[in-house]
Specification:
Radius of gyration of chain B: 20 Å
Strand content of chain A: under 5%
Number of helices of chain A: 12
Strand order of the largest sheet of chain B: 1-2
Oligomer: heterodimer
Structural class of chain B: mainly alpha
Shape of chain B: globular
Distance between the termini of chain A: 32 Å
Number of strands of chain B: 2
Distance between the termini of chain B: 28 Å
Number of helices of chain B: 11
Radius of gyration of chain A: 20 Å
Chain lengths: 262, 264
Amino acid sequence: MSRYLRLFLKNSALRLSSEMAYKWNFWVKTFAVALGDLIGPVLILLIYSTTSGIQGWSLAEFILFQGTLTLVIGFSHVFFTLIGVQTIDMVRHGKFDAALIKPYNPLLYLSFTSFDWDGLAEIFVGLALLTWSFITLGIVIFSWNFVLYLFLIALALVLFYSLVVMISSLAFLLVKSWALFALFFRTIDFARYPLDIYGQGLRVLFTFFLPLGVASFYPAKALLDGIELTIVLYLMLSMSIFLAISLVLWHFAMKKYSSAGG
Amino acid sequence: MGSYLALLKGGYKEALQYRFDFVVGLLRVPLTLIIFYFLWKAVFAFNGTDVINGYTFETMIGYYVLSMIVGMFTWMDVDNWLRWDVKSGEVVSEFMRPLNFVFQYLFRQWGMSTLSIFISLVPTFLIGYLFVGLMFFGWLNFVFFTISVVLAMFIVFLITMFIGLLAFWLTDISGLIKVKNMFIAFLSGSLVPLSFFPGIIQKVFAFLPFQYMRYVPVNIYLGIYSVNETLFHLGVMVLWVVVLYIFVHYQSKLALKKMSGVGI
């Protein structure tokens, strides 16, 4: 394991120094990422300042909801997104062999060389939104609900990791899977608003089949109102299944891979 | 003119290579609409009013449908091309052709946009009319709307061109491109009608080109302005196009000087 830790630290340091080669551009990019994360909260702020909002959610609760999602997206941006970007790019140019001949497991190799400094701003914006809403709502951190909240966020990260691995695997079968990546980000947009605004069908879809609810709705519910243990158990089971499917798919893709012969 | 048409055709063929992405991109339209549909349904239901800020539920959803349609016509990628062309030095060939530098990029962009517009325009209008009750507000509005979309397209193109040309002076403009996209997302009204912003901010918006990219054309279609107001807005848009064009034209001349300065 320490081998991988060393790999991770060395690679991340390398990525940082290449970002710092264009220091000015890095800060502009960071600013853009932070602005992008504020789009959702600004929309909510505008809606709540001209109307009384939507049922069951005060402004601060809504910001807590969106802050949670921003944090989850931020972590997966920093740790997972480049796994997909690297794989798609390598496969398209027939360079994936480079990842195969390294003395590491290919998936772990990719997972530990994908730290994206661009995403840190996203984590900070998420934390800032959460801090504001925690203070406004007077949320107690030392509580059972808060532990559940953190646990559900961890489950959400398992889901996002699995989805990125699935998309990366499909890169081997479809070669062009940028579009799938774009679709993935679009689908996440559903998690930007509470599940209770959607119709029955979509609610079931995002709880049981594509459990995006775990990235924002269920953690927020757990913290604000508490959540039934059966839902937590179900989500645990669901994330294990997602992870298992993504790994099976990855191994299938590995067998399928034929390089460009270069 | 023939040479420009060739560039247009080239752009179209370039787009064909990415047709898979375009088809998947098509799915974006219904996904985004579903989200806004449910969000506003929840807001209207909880507030118990028929009209919020001058929009009924139907015109609000119609607003998003139209905003996406305007978005298809105003989708511009020239800043990314310029970033790449300047970095790789390929921009030399654009300068060497006996054609207007700015127009070359415009026609290549038109060629590329044609495909996505072909694929997405009809489905989006259909979704609008069949599922979310988008209405037709008369031919006069429609003609004004069409004119405003063309003008909006030029405004977005010129601003994108301005950012792209900065690649001659800055080492990497990828961050700047993202910031520009965020500004457009916030200030053009693609997120929410700009009348939701506080009055004082709206006054500032009136002096910026962003509201003409989505908000004004959509409101023209929805018949929110009187004929006089519409004509006034169209006049301001023409003014923006002229001013931005003059600016970008001279910027491209300066870019050429800057480039010959480094001996290419």
